[in-house]
Task: structure prediction
Amino acid sequence: MSLSENKQNKNEFGGLWTVEKLEILETYARQFLKVFKNKSSAKLLYFDGFAGSGEISHINNGIYNTIEGSTKRILDINEPRSFNIYYFVEKNKPLADSLQEMINRDYQSKKAYVVSKDCNEKLRDLAIFLNSAKGKHYKVLAFIDPKGMQLKWESLEALKGLNIDLWILNPTSGCNRLLKTNGNISTEWKNRLKLFLGIKEDEIMDYFYKPSSQQNLFGFSEIEKERDSIQKLHELYATRIKQNIFKYVTEPKVLRDSKGRILFHFFMATNNDIALRIGNSVVNPKFTKI
Result:
């Protein structure tokens, strides 16, 4: 297989923030499983909505290599116990096929499923399952890691009241680019914002814009974008999740690029107060002097 073909069958490395995100997820997964260490009867399900291929391509100083993606990191956890079921969703067929090949080769003992479908569809299916007689016995750790604004608000709403610890990568920087400085947002972008945030157009404009302190040539006040709109995007999103879907949300881990610019807010939503405490400790670990 050529280098280009090999890269096409793997997710691409985004930066150091990629590793930071994966380490948070893995650390929490280990703590999650530790809680059920002596509860062998507890049924645990891991759900990944944008699973990728299991490996991430990384070129460093012209040298091509790979690092472990979220799926491989989670499948590798065997102590103190494993999940009973792994459900991986990856819409990109070549990536899904690569993941299935890896599972068939290296994780034959794990009860793992790979489906090449849209995450929103499978989240709604997950909600239906968890509301069923069989599904009520499962506790779920879920990871939603979209490249952009693919996650729809209505899909999150389907999870209301369910026994899920849900880690979400909130694409605040990408979402912010749709909020034009002068408020002149295209209809297409407004629709994307409405689907993602779950609010109406006038609510978007009221929240992110204010009357301009300057006047145009005709003396009429114009609107201007609020400062710290990236932070406001996360505050709105997380607050609405807490008010409408889950009882709790953790503090976010702010993920930045190599120049210090904010890319994402990474956080967890849950209905369990113990999970909340563990999640916050993973996002912001406290270091003690030795």
Q: What stands out?
A: The longest strand covers residues 262-270. DSSP finds eleven helices and 13 strands in the chain. Residues 91 and 116 are 4 Å apart (CA to CA).
